[in-house]
Specification:
With about 120 residues, the chain is mainly alpha-helical. It folds into 2 domains: about 1-35; about 40-125. Helices cover about 80% and strands about 0% of the residues. Helix 2 packs antiparallel against helix 3 (about 85-115). It is elongated, with a radius of gyration of 25 Å.
């Protein structure tokens, strides 16, 4: 059997389909924003919700980091009962990971605040 659609036409059709999906996705997002944010007060409450999410992320990173650091420091002090690598190395790896997690959340918060403070209109998202 021969293929009625040559490969070039199939590729062009899938590209057009992808383009329409992107347009539909963006317009759907715009419609939902228009429906859900009819007033500046609603937009402000969404901005506050975003701030609350970042505060929760800081809390989660802090608690999980504190537990991990406590466990690895106890492991180091009591003789490697985790039974893994060098306990001192494990402690410093966890310390570095917690610092990196705080840095990532802080950088994202800084970028969000910087974009929100601009006059371009993106900040109202």
């Amino acid at each position: 059997m021969s293929n009625p659609n040559p490969p070039a036409r199939e590729a062009a059709g899938s590209s057009a389909s992808t383009t329409w999906r992107r347009i539909a996705g963006r317009s759907t997002l715009a419609v939902w924003c228009w429906i859900l944010c009819p007033s500046p007060a609603m937009a402000q409450s969404l901005k506050q919700a975003g701030t609350n999410i970042f505060n929760a992320l800081y809390g989660i990173v802090g608690v999980v980091g504190a537990i991990a650091l406590l466990a690895t420091s106890l492991n180091w002090a009591t003789g490697n009962w985790l039974g893994r690598d060098d306990p001192k190395r494990l402690f410093f790896q966890v310390l570095f990971a917690v610092a990196l997690a705080f840095a990532v959340v802080t950088i994202i918060q800084f970028v969000k605040d910087s974009v929100g403070a601009s006059a371009s209109g993106i900040g109202s998202l």
